């Protein structure tokens, strides 16, 4: 390499540096694409389902208030309004539960969500019994049936 002219040495060095820079750039671009793909997957599989849970949680709490309205209803119109709200909220919970169920990732999440669905079914059975008691004019029994859930048991 001592016998090569100086301009050839400079050009060869610049070409070597260019090849190294291109390789580093290609590796960086590949990693950026992988990061973008993983970020999109994380958003779709983790962040979006959180909004579904929010859309389940809010109506679930509103059902509790609606049950209070059903128990406190003094007229048939008040009872019917509360019943309509109860049915709409139940449908909303079911709709967003179905959406959330499609997005769950792992076995633990599926198991936890299965527990939620089982508990919701049992809770809904109690709520429907409370409504039947109220319709039959047995408000005291309706309140008693709902008390364990109000106390968090």
Folded structure, characterized:
The chain has 153 residues and is mainly α. Helix content is 88%, strand content 0%. The chain contains 4 helices and no strands. The protein has helices spanning 6-72, 76-101, 107-135, 139-150. Helix 1 packs antiparallel against helix 2 (76-101) and helix 3 runs antiparallel to helix 4. The radius of gyration is 31 Å and the shape is rod-shaped. The model has no long low-confidence stretch (mean pLDDT 87).
* Average of per-residue pLDDT values: 87
Shape: rod-shaped
- The DSSP helix count reads 4
Q: What is the CA-atom radius of gyration, in angstroms?
A: 31 Å
Which structural class fits the helix and strand makeup? mainly alpha
SSE order in H/E notation?
HHHH
Distance between the termini: 86 Å
Strand content: under 5%
The largest pleated sheet is described as:
none
The counted number of beta strands is 0
SSE map:
Layout: H1 6-72, H2 76-101, H3 107-135, H4 139-150
Helix pairs in contact: 1-2, 3-4
Features of the shown structure:
88% helix, single chain, rod-shaped, 153 residues, mainly alpha
């Amino acid at each position: 390499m001592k016998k090569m002219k100086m301009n050839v040495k400079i050009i060869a060095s610049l070409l070597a540096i260019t090849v190294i820079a291109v390789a580093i750039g290609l590796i960086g671009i590949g990693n950026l694409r992988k990061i973008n793909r993983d970020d999109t997957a994380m958003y779709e599989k983790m962040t979006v389902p959180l909004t579904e849970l929010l859309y389940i949680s809010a109506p679930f709490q509103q059902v509790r208030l609606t049950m209070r309205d059903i128990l406190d209803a003094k007229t048939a119109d008040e009872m019917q309004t509360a019943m309509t709200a109860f049915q709409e909220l139940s449908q909303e919970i079911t709709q967003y539960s179905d959406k959330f169920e499609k997005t769950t990732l792992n076995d633990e999440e599926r198991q936890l969500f299965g527990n939620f669905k089982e508990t919701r079914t049992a809770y809904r059975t109690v709520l429907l019994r409370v409504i039947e008691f109220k319709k039959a004019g047995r408000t005291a029994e309706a309140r008693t049936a709902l008390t364990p859930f109000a106390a968090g048991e």
